[in-house]
Amino acid sequence: MTSVRAVFPTSQAEQLETLKAAAVREVAVRKVADEHLVQMEARYRGLLEAAPDAIVVVNEVGEIVLLNLQAEKQFGYSRDALVGQAVTNIIPDGFAERLIADGARTAAQALAQQIGTGIELVGRRRDGSEFPIELMLSPLESAEGVLVTAAIRDISVRKDAEEHLAQMEARYRGLLEAAPDAMVVVNEVGEIVLLNLQAEKQFGYRRDELVGHPVKDIIPEGFAERLIADGARTAAEALAQQIGTGIELIAHRKDGSEFPIELMLSPLESADGILVTAAIRDISVRRDAEVHLVQMEARYRGLLEAAPDAMVVVNARGEIVLLNLQAEKQFGYRRDELVGHPVKDIIPEGFAERLVTDGARTAAEALAQQIGTGIELIGHRKDGSEFPIELMLSPLESVDGTLVTAAIRNVSSRREAQEALRVSEERHRMAVELAEMGTWIWDVEQNEISWSDQFHLIFGLTANDAMTFDVLFGAIHPEDRPEVEQKLRNTVTLGEPYDVEFRVSRRDSCVHWIASRGRLHGDRDGVALTMQGTVVDITARKAAQEATRQRETLERTARELARSNDDLQQFAYVAAHDLQEPLRMVSSYTQLLAKRYKGRLDADADTYIDFAVDGAHRMQRLIEDLLAYCQVGTAGHDLRETSTEDALARALVNLRGAIDESGGAVTHGPLPTLIADPAQLTQLFQNVVGNAIKYRGAEPPRVHVSAKKTRAGEWVFSMRDNGLGINPRYFEKIFLMFQRLHGRSEFSGTGIGLSLCKKIAERHRGRMWVDSVPGTGSTFYLALPQAH
To answer: Fewer Cβ close by (within 10 Å): the C or N end of the chain?
Structure first.
């Protein structure tokens, strides 16, 4: 073989050798670069597949060039059935029009403009069914021209509970407004320069009432102290340090009320100096933690770092090959302390076992199976502490083997979540469901309305029942329908808040009370008018209010009756007391008339004088009995330990004359000692035994008193006689005042004795009743508690 030097001069041959060597080196460098590119593409392809939303990449002519597993699932196509096809096959309107298509705009114009954030369109599945979607579009300049990456979210089962922002001022302003938390941007001197709708809602201010004002107006302590303020630290120091993650402080609303918040602070170097962005979360009902995004290194690396959860990529041997900032924060390691180390260092059990490891399963098997969704395990931090986590795992076949991408969520501060929240907006839907609220959205311009399942339940319908305006207004109670219609008109025409309570007649014939509230969104200058609101069943609350009203009425009536009874008793007492003196005078003078003129006048005069004397005596006894009745609760002695046997003995001493005259006998068994008023108990025994002596039959009266303790802990006294007896229809009547079963010509008395006994029993928290057979005798019962 002829050498190069034989053909070319020496200098030319050396130059040729040098060129050959350079070419070889260039090929080697290119090969290394290609391998590195393949590895990086595999890693970020894993991120694409791990995304919880469908991801579709479209070229300038509207053809799909790349998609992920979620896109296959959402639209029902296999991957090869979509790649190369027009994006209008799955998103007929609104997407392709934003592309460069047909030279309508240049690549530079497409890159410069905001293609779209939070765009609501309609997606079409392979089976022809349609469903609402929300797009997040991002342009990318590549070797093939301008590509558009679309993150597609199915919003058919979870309507955004926050307002959808209309016109965006800029891409990042759109992200700010779309944030589920209150977002506030503060400058170096602690003044608010930007905020979002959620901040207005949380703090109760309008936007113009906060911009330019100190952040201390809403967060008095703990926030402003972390700013650069007054040169306490340099901008570089503020950027270098972690200003704050998960800081718990107290916030103040416009109305002066306070509520606990959790801050996620992030510094940003801008043309206006160092700004601090604060994500503010109300943690009075939930303690969610999200992360603030750092600067993006590249397109897919940006997706990884922007993830609100810790993201870890693990190879088939269980070694960590990639992680994001949230993983560093959650587990307490630096990035270089985890890359290349076993995943068991941070998740000891349950994760590594799902990998291909040791040939237990092939890469194809790992790719084919659903490795895991919503797996709950335990994570270990660098300091040895443990915390509960939830995993979302997704396999990916790459040049390095099967990789597994894990989205790791710290669930220690919000155990109430039963399934993984794929997007932060879903928590609002869950809150509505937990509160048993029905939701509705009315497109005023199109006169179309949609309802949630809970709305159907509140109206007594099933999810399969058709719900139209006619059905809705037909269910509303006729008396309440005009008010509902008027409220709707005022909201649509005048912008007034919609807030009304009305009744609904359900299929089960039950009438339920419903509270409905709503707001009007949009305006008539090119933005569609929509009205969004909620309904809540408040039947139980209405019933409780009615019960409270009735109870208050009863209590008021009871108080009035008690006051009336007190007034009547006082009147009776005063009247009886004041009548005694003039009656005593009448009685005295009639007795003098009888003594001086009896027999000296004619027979009629003697009769008249006898009537007057007898009437005065009876009136005297009546007043004395009435006074005794009125004084039972006011003039009685204090209740103390009393022998009922002694009380009966005193009563029999007082009745000795009547008993001896009648030839009767009174016996008794063992009687207990109770807490009672001795004098009143003696009065009660005297009245009952005295009645038995008075209302006796042909035989001499026999009275027996006994007592027995019941299981309820009270003593029941039985006072049995062999007298005339009482007809059962008079059992209640005899305990009323002035009620007599016999004329005065038969038996004397005022008709107050038994009513006085009953009142004495009631003062002792007891009761009285009678059992009798006419002609055989009666048994009076007295039930008294052991103590009270």
So the answer is: N
Contacts of residue 461, Cβ cutoff 8 Å, sequence gap at least 6: 467, 507
DSSP string, 165-188: P-S-SSHHHHHHHH-SSEEEEE-T
> Strands (DSSP E) along 644-765, which ranges?
665-668, 673-676, 702-709, 714-721
CB under 8 Å to 367, separation ≥6 — which residues? 395, 396, 397, 402
Structure tokens at 159: 């309507």
User: Three-state SS for 560?
Assistant: helix
Burial class, 775, CB count within 10 angstroms (exposed 0-12 / middle 13-18 / buried 19+): exposed
φ, ψ of residue 701 in degrees (nearest 5): -65, 140
Residues 6+ apart with CB under 8 A from 50: 311, 392, 394, 396, 405, 407
The 3-class SS string of 259-272 reads: EEEEEEEEEEEECC
The answer on pLDDT for 771 being more than 70 is: yes
Q: CA-to-CA distance for 57 and 90, rounded, in angstroms? A: 13
Q: Please choose, from the candidates 632, 646, 645, the residue with its C-alpha nearest in 3D space to the C-alpha of residue 680.
A: 632
Amino acid at 720: R
Q: What is the pLDDT of residues 231-251, one digit of tens each?
A: 555 655 654 454 556 788 999
DSSP 387: E
Place of tokens 């009966």: 648
Strands 665-668 and 702-709, bridge-based pairing: parallel
Buried b / exposed e across 102-124, counting CB within 10 Å, b at 16+? eeebeeeebeeeebbbbbebebb
Q: How far apart are CA 474 and CA 575, in angstroms?
A: 66
Q: Is the model more confident about 398 or about 777?
A: 777
Angle, CA 183 vertex, CA 178 and CA 184 arms, to 5°: 145
Residue pair 114/170 in contact (Cβ under 8 Å)? The answer is yes
Cβ neighbours around 462 below 10 Å, total: 9
* pTM of the complete model: 0.30
Residues 65 and 657: their CA atoms lie apart, in Å, by 123
3-state secondary structure of 190: coil
Residue 420 pLDDT exceeds 50: no
Task: Give the pLDDT confidence score for residue 693 in this predicted structure.
Answer: 86
Label the pairing between strands 64-67 and 54-58. Answer: antiparallel
Q: What is the chain's alpha carbon radius of gyration, rounded to the nearest angstrom?
A: 48
